[in-house]
Amino acid sequence: MLKLKGCPKCQGTLNLASDMYGRYISCLQCGFSRDLPDVLPRTAVAAPAAPDVQAPMRKAA
Ligand SMILES: [Zn+2]
């Protein structure tokens, strides 16, 4: 999978690949490479836990 203009160094094309060690990206233009986390917590990014602002404050009687 290619990601255009994804390189932080040269704005070149990043190639998303994976090997036995996991996923990584490498730049086709300058050779920049970086490992990617094994598991992407997509849900954590898309839907962060809502702060508990709606919880009513109850006093013990
Ligand atoms: Zn690059």
Mean pLDDT: 82
What is the number of beta strands? 4
Low-confidence stretches: none
The biggest beta sheet reads: 4 strands, antiparallel
**Order of strands, widest sheet:** 1-2-3-4
Provide the helix percentage: under 10%
Content-based structural category: mainly beta
> Approximately how much beta-strand content do the residues carry?
25-35%
Count up the helices: 1
Distance between the termini: 61 Å
Bound molecules: zinc ion
User: What is the helix/strand order?
Assistant: EEEEH
- C-alpha geometry: elongated
Q: How large, in whole angstroms, is the Cα Rg?
A: 20 Å
Structure in words:
Helices cover 8% and strands 28% of the residues. With 61 residues, it is mainly beta. The protein has a domain at 2-36. It starts with a strand and ends in a 15-residue tail after the last helix. The site of zinc ion has 8 residues, from loops.
Could you outline the blueprint of secondary structure elements for this entry?
Blueprint: E1 2-3, E2 14-19, E3 22-27, E4 33-35, H1 42-46
Antiparallel strand pairs: 1-2, 2-3, 3-4
The structure holds zinc ion.
Task: Give descriptors for this structure.
61 residues, mainly beta, elongated, binds zinc ion
Give a summary of the structure in a few sentences.
This protein is mainly beta and 61 residues long.
